[in-house]
Amino acid sequence: MKTHIYPAIKITVALLVLLAVIYPAVVWAIAQLAPNHGKGAVISYHNQNYYKNIGQSFTDETYFWSRPSAVAYNAAGSGGSNKGPSNPEYLTEVKARIDTFLKKNPEVSKAQVPVDLVTASGSGLDPDISVAAAKVQVARIAKARAIDANSVQSLVDAHVQKPLWGMFGPEKINVLELNIALDQMTEK
């Protein structure tokens, strides 16, 4: 018994020190080299701080809408829905989102509604939408803010983020940055 118990205790203590002390210390030290010292990408606007890399809820007609969240945009409870595409409750939820979107965007057909505007991401906190999801909202926002649609379209085009190294991932737009730029454009 001694031949098994002592090595098991030694391995347990060694792994405890490695994984509970050394590894977190190394990750913390590396984070200190990152912008904002590993505390996330923060944007200050009108004396309020927002996390750029965490989805925000935008549902007003004068703003670009965010991707829906399965966790009500709560970063402490990050996670997606476990409901599959054949789940009747999930299908009802998605249909309600589509209907709401079409009601607020009457110039858009059902076939034009991008999937990322009616389904939540795996984390429930996706801060980005596709370029198509932004473009399909331009007419609604221009009308709601009484501004030229071409100006809103130019703003969308200016906020497109290209794929990493030009090949990894799709083009996307950070909704928070786009909405702040929209506010700044109309404040002038």
UniProtKB/TrEMBL annotation:
This chain belongs to which protein, by name?
Potassium-transporting ATPase KdpC subunit
Q: Respond yes or no to whether keyword Protein transport is given for this record.
A: no
Report the protein's function: Part of the high-affinity ATP-driven potassium transport (or Kdp) system, which catalyzes the hydrolysis of ATP coupled with the electrogenic transport of potassium into the cytoplasm. This subunit acts as a catalytic chaperone that increases the ATP-binding affinity of the ATP-hydrolyzing subunit KdpB by the formation of a transient KdpB/KdpC/ATP ternary complex.
Per the UniProt record, one Pfam family is KdpC
Complexes and interactors: The system is composed of three essential subunits: KdpA, KdpB and KdpC.
Membrane protein topology class? Single-pass membrane protein
Q: What's the family?
A: Belongs to the KdpC family.
One term under GO cellular component: plasma membrane
Q: What is the lineage of its organism?
A: Bacteria, Pseudomonadati, Bacteroidota, Sphingobacteriia, Sphingobacteriales
- What species does this protein belong to? Sphingobacterium athyrii
Q: InterPro entries of this UniProt entry?
A: KdpC
